Amino acid sequence: MEPEALFESTDLAPMLAAVRGACAPLATGQPDEDPRYRDSFVDIKQEIDKLQGADLGRVVQASLAFLADEAKDLRIAGYLALALVARFGASGLMTAALVYRSVLAQDADSLHPRKPVQRAAAVAWLNSARMDALLGAAAPDLRPEQWQSLDESLEAIARLCAEHIQSDADEPAGWSAATRWLEEHRPADPTPGAGSAASPASVPVPDAPILGPPPKGDLSQEQFLAHGRVLHDALLDQGLLLQAAALARAVRWGALNEPPHENGVTRIAPPREGAWTEIDGAARDGDAREAYVVAARLMFEPGFQWSLDLQQRLAELAAGIPDAALKDYIEGEAALFARRLPAVLTLHFADGGPFAGESARAWLAGFDAQRGRGQAHTDAGDSFAQRLSEARAEPDLGRAFALLDAVPAATARERCRIDLLRAELCLGAKRAHVAYGLLMELKRRVEGMQVMEWDPEVGTQLYESLRRAAIALRKTSNGNGVAQGGMHPGAVVEECERLIAGLNPTRALELV
């Protein structure tokens, strides 16, 4: 089928020429040197590696141009795939599969990266937890011909990977994460007219909010945010402003911890500048409710969950709406947020802009946000540490677990520490297989979440404990068994050492 038909009526239609260019052979031939040191390659990788605020449109454009003009590289094709899925959902997946298939189909000897292990790593990157989360949030809104194109591309990718890419024999060749998504969502008997290429914004909101049970299985952080945003916007559209405010703060603030910083400056990208102009424009039109809705939607944009200036603005806009409970709720929650994470009053975004400007700090001071903060925080921290110590000292494993079950955990970091102690106790009791299962589940649950980026200490401890469990498991199975999760213990050890090196290079050098 001609690409024009596949891209018709999709948000990707304007990119058809760029996609054709990325799929076509290079006019000048493949370069011999590894292109990963080029400025264009580094720029793309740095943008895609951002935890928040990545400019996905820029990644898409730059990656397509790189593949069209500079080199056919599986790493860039992978970065492009992630950006396309994140930005365009299912139609982005279809496009990414087309491009990836064409890159793989180039001369295998000239394809970058050249080393077999690097090629295998590039393909494995497609099946990361981050990609799984993005696919999980993608609506299956393809037309029949698009389903067919995706199916054909993924089959070709699997075949080409099996022929040219060395990989773990226990893992299906190719883009297995996308193949699983296709198998779960593809219509059993697609017919013309089934499916739609409509964007999420064009899907009508039901008369009542859909507040049913979430999908089966644990949600990743990115899936959790995606589902939360849909529900939040539906509540706003139905005028349920207080309910939407409560949902937004539960989703966006519930698992936040104080981010690392140097001299008060964090690595968090600043909120989108144009958003303030949008609020001002809506406010000038004289509709306080509409202006409030514009501002409220920002809670789900990168960086804005940290902005106390936004909270002050929301409270001011809520004052113009005949609902006193809304303004009181926003003010009370902002004060509690500042009390729980007092550093937000002094921290700054990566560009130097404050989380809380002078006006916002004065606004919060009026609620006595800092009253009793220091002692309450210290007492809570001491109590948590004491209860963990009591569980650690308990010689009976069952009773120790019961003590841990009774420990309240207010943050994601505290929940991680409890689970890490469970695994540590199992290792001490020579129950490596139990520790391994606990740690693999914890790894799956938190990998890619903010706690791993902002708390490398917890991440390092997790991977060190998992490495110890895998080593113990490898010894008991004489190196021949396959551990839970489908990986050989030896492979888990190597993966943990690589992850530790990324979080704490000094500690990685000390591993024995």
TrEMBL record:
Domain named ImpA N-terminal is located at: 33-127
Task: Name the source's superkingdom.
Answer: Bacteria
Q: Where is the composition biased (Low complexity)?
A: 191-209
Looking at the record, which segments are called Disordered?
185-219
Q: Where is the signal peptide?
A: none
Instruction: Please identify the protein, giving its name as recorded.
Output: ImpA N-terminal domain-containing protein
Q: Which organism is it from?
A: Thioalkalivibrio denitrificans
